[in-house]
Amino acid sequence: MIRLTQILTENIDRSKLRVKTATIGGLLVYMLYYDTKKIGALRLKPRGSDYRVHGVVVYDRWRGQGFGTGLYKFAIRKLAQDAKKLYSDYTRSAEATNIWNRLVADGLAEKNPDGTYVSVI
Predict the structure, then answer these.
(1) At what angle do helices 67-80 and 94-105 cross, to 10 degrees?
(2) Is the pLDDT assigned to residue 1 strictly greater than 50?
């Protein structure tokens, strides 16, 4: 049996995905849109010359389709262009921890001894 999220993922027109960047209240925010609909956002707090995840949201209808992971990967690659790193928050949801573990498996991050994560590209 195919799950609904698998069907939705296959039917997504990737050419309609856009990321908008803004600075809001001192946070760097990457907002993900599908056509004109906001899917979610990743908010980053400055940490010296780097950034730490301050919060992430993917709206219910879009969850389970890889958009959260995509936001993290986008942020890591975008920050790396300026030689900046992305650090995880000290406390994370189970979903965020799963994303960071995927990033480690993909060679984009590593886990620190204190249990936090940091991008490595």
Answers:
(1) 60
(2) no
Q: What is the CATH number of the domain that holds 99?
A: 3.40.630.30
Using alpha carbons only, how large is the chain's radius of gyration in Å? Answer: 14
**pTM score, two decimals?**
0.86
The pair of three-digit structure tokens given for residue 106, joined into one six-digit string: 């993909």
Identify the domain containing residue 29 by its residue range.
4-119
Find, among 41, 42, 32, the residue nearest to 12 by Cα: 32
Q: Please name the amino acid found at residue 21.
A: T
Which pLDDT tens digit goes with each residue over 9-18? Answer: 556 788 889 9
The rounded mean pLDDT for the chain is: 89
User: From residue 39, how far is each of 23, 44, 63, 67, 78 by CA, in Å?
Assistant: 18, 17, 9, 8, 19
Q: For the chain, what is the domain count?
A: 1
> Which amino acid is it at 115?
G
The predicted model gives 20-49 an average pLDDT of 96
